[in-house]
Amino acid sequence: MACVHYKFASKLNYSIATFDGRHISLRDLKKQIMGREKLKVANCDLQITNAQTKEEYTDDNALIPKNSSVIVRRIPIGGVKSTSKTYVISRTEPVMGTSKAVCKNTISHFFYTLLLPLYCCSEVNHIRP
């Protein structure tokens, strides 16, 4: 029995796919890995890369020699999609501030409490050592 050592890019340890012969086709290796790892064919595809040469196997009829080590990555069926999401938000109201009217008494009370200590205290109290 011949074997190919494979590991997912996110894992540390290699697993073994066994077969008869001197090499295995990419299609057969993918089927075996998906079966062993309990992956569904409808959800994803596998990207297989040679661990030593970094060559990516793309042709399903490509032959992978026995005793090879490969790195496996799961990819979506439709290809790699962008992971960043952009949302467009349309606003009809102002972004900053409030649309409520502010009472004039509230504003004058605010300034009164803010400025009152400045006018009532002597100059000596404002200067601190």
TrEMBL record:
DWNN domain mapped to chain residues: 4-76
Compartment(s): Nucleus
GO biological process assignments: mRNA processing; protein ubiquitination; ubiquitin-dependent protein catabolic process
Organism: Myotis myotis (Greater mouse-eared bat)
GO cellular component: nucleus
Full protein name: DWNN domain-containing protein
Main location per the UniProt record: nucleus
Keyword set, alphabetical order: Metal-binding, Nucleus, Zinc, Zinc-finger
